[in-house]
Design brief:
- The complex is a heterodimer of chains A (391) and B (135).
- With 391 residues, chain A is α/β, with parallel strands linked by helices.
- Helix content of chain A is 32%, strand content 18%.
- Chain A has a five-stranded mixed sheet, sandwiched between helices. Chain A has a four-stranded mixed sheet with strand order 8-11-10-9, sandwiched between helices. A two-stranded antiparallel sheet of chain A has the order 5-6.
- In chain A, helix 5 packs across helix 9.
- The longest helix of chain A has 16 residues.
- Chain A is globular and about 55 Å long.
- Chain A starts with 10 loop residues before the first strand and ends with a strand.
- The radius of gyration of chain B is 16 Å and the shape is globular.
- The model of chain B has no long low-confidence stretch (mean pLDDT 95).
- In chain B, the strands form two sheets. A five-stranded antiparallel sheet of chain B has the order 6-5-4-7-8, covered by helices on one side. A three-stranded antiparallel sheet of chain B has the order 2-1-3.
- Chain B contains two helices and eight strands.
- With 135 residues, chain B is mainly beta.
- Chain B is 11% helix and 39% strand.
- Classes of the chains: A alpha/beta (391), B mainly beta (135).
- Chains A and B meet through helix 4 and strand 5 of A and strand 4, strand 5 and strand 6 of B.
């Protein structure tokens, strides 16, 4: 076992902004990049001229990225960075960008990094495949059978239910709680309260996942500003330090995922806790990537919040309710508020808002720490951040 | 040029060997000559040991169902026309896992860990690939 190293506490998130857009037909994603970068910098009290680091991932068709996507978006916005990062680990990418931005700042490659994200996930006018990879190479042996993103997660859900007896009504609790917080959030995509019965009555998509087990599909974006602890002292707003970080990758094809009842958050989470010098017991609120209800179930166990096989009882016992052990996705999550393609960005922003006492959904009383866990692809990759401790 | 929205496999020199066998109702897998470990999907080299080339071997066609999902909705025209269909992850008795379909089996009979045996079906026009039935 290696000892994980990360410059814990050396950089802070001083600006954060989530676009209120949810349905934006005709609006190009680069317009949203420019809007959210301006707002995040405004939040920090900084100007673009101070930005010398840039990270984004825009390789999905709905992100309009094509090749060289970070280069083109930097060009569109007018950023001239000395450090650039376009790591693509799916929806977990923004968490990876933040962790690597902190390391780059500490190494002296840059001082102030903008991480931005935008996608026309709902309204993109060009053809976009529903399949995980192309039909060449590894995908030749999986794509012809029609393994979509939803059915990939459904395969994991089936196996988990088989091994541990998780019931659909227990899993539905994740969607019900998300909607409860979305109900408070004026920008959330869907706000009408739902019940477990509503989830179970929604159309079956790919067994055992129903429509309300699946995240919303929106057009939106967000940006955050990461800078050194020294620079953060002079910024307009305070913001949390990045205390812990870890990332891990698993598989590209579902037939390569060895154990479908857990995720590599077991590794990224362990790395994040170890670098922060914290344990799951220290965390009282978290943002857990909720592409699907099952994503949350597997992540909570992999991160060590719930013993293996017990997440159904944890949900049934109110574990993620406002007064439970671990309220999660306090803005309404991807299941009800916002999921344009890479939910990781919005999960980080909600963690920052929660720590600033500004959640638009469920604001907890003075949380000191917030864990963010991103899951990319089809349980393919994870990244975990632990934020807290104002500079 | 190939239609980007197509789901039909685009072969290369390596994969063509596997698909050619499937057209003859033969399921090939690859074996590491040093350890005997079986790997799928086919690769040019042994996974994790790029200095070694794997050997092709014929699989028995027997396996068990690791997991499955019954697809009721698809946004892809070709699959939307096929619903409901059953995507399966099958653990072959040789030790590798492959993606496939369970076919000709009532959905209420399908359960994880059930024994399966291979059949070959033209799952798309001109594309013959292994599927599985209850053993």
């Amino acid at each position: 076992m290696t000892t994980e190293r990360f410059p814990s506490g050396s950089a802070c998130i001083v600006g954060a902004y989530e676009s209120p857009r949810r349905k934006a037909p005709g609006i190009h994603p680069y317009q949203i990049h420019a809007e959210v970068i301006a707002k995040a910098l405004g939040d920090a009290g900084m100007s673009l001229s101070e930005v010398d680091g840039f990270a984004t991932a825009a390789s999905f068709p709905s992100e309009a990225g094509w090749q060289l996507n970070a280069v083109e978006i930097a060009e569109y916005v007018g950023i001239d960075p000395s450090w650039v990062c376009s790591t693509d680990i799916g929806g977990a990418a923004p968490l990876s960008h933040v962790g690597n931005a902190v390391a780059a700042i500490q190494a002296g490659l840059c001082n102030t990094v903008v991480v931005s994200y935008a996608s026309s996930g709902r309204s993109w006018p060009l053809n976009a495949s529903d399949f995980n990879t192309g039909q060449t190479g590894p995908g030749e042996f999986e794509v012809p059978y029609g393994v979509s993103t939803i059915s990939a997660y459904a395969l994991a859900a089936t196996r988990y239910m088989h091994e541990y007896g998780l019931r659909p009504e227990e899993l539905a609790e994740v969607a019900v709680q998300a909607r409860r917080y979305a109900n408070l959030n004026p920008n959330a995509m869907y706000r009408d309260l739902i019940t477990v019965d509503d989830v179970l009555a929604s159309p079956m998509i790919s067994t055992p996942l129903r429509k309300l087990d699946c995240c919303v599909v929106s057009d939106s974006g967000g940006a955050i500003v990461v800078t050194s602890k020294e620079r953060a002292r002079d910024s307009r707003r305070s913001g949390p330090s990045v205390l812990g970080f870890g990332e891990a990758i698993s598989h590209g094809q579902m037939n390569q995922m060895k154990d479908m009842t857990t995720t590599v958050a077991a590794h990224s989470g362990r790395r994040a806790f170890e670098t922060a010098g914290l344990t799951p017991e220290d965390i009282k609120v978290a943002q857990i990537y909720d592409s699907f209800t099952i994503t949350v179930a597997l992540s909570l166990e992999a991160l060590g919040f719930v013993p293996r096989g017990e997440v159904g009882a944890f949900f049934a016992g109110g574990g993620i309710r406002p007064d439970g052990r671990l309220p999660i996705n306090t803005d309404g999550g991807g299941l009800s508020s916002n999921h344009a393609g890479r939910r990781g960005m919005f999960a980080i922003i909600e963690a920052v808002r929660q720590l600033r006492g500004e959640s638009p959904g469920l604001q907890l009383p003075s949380p000191e720490l917030c864990l963010v866990n991103g899951t990319g692809g089809w349980l393919s990759a994870t990244a975990t951040l632990i934020l807290g401790g104002k500079q | 040029m190939i239609d980007m929205t197509s789901v039909h496999p685009v072969h290369n020199a390596l994969s063509e060997h596997w698909f050619e066998a499937a057209r003859r109702d033969v399921l090939l897998v690859q074996k590491d000559p040093a350890t005997g470990t079986v790997q799928m999907y086919p690769r040019a080299r042994v996974v994790g040991f790029p200095e070694r080339e794997p050997e092709w071997v014929e699989a028995s066609g027997r396996g068990t169902l690791y997991s499955y999902t019954v697809v009721h909705r698809s946004i892809h025209n070709e699959f939307a026309a096929m619903t409901p269909f059953v995507i399966a992850l099958v653990d072959l008795e040789e030790g590798a896992r492959i993606t496939s379909w369970v076919v000709d089996t009532p959905v209420e009979n399908i359960r994880c860990d059930m024994p399966l045996e291979v059949v070959f079906r033209e799952i798309h026009p001109g594309v013959k690939m292994p599927c599985f039935i209850e053993a």
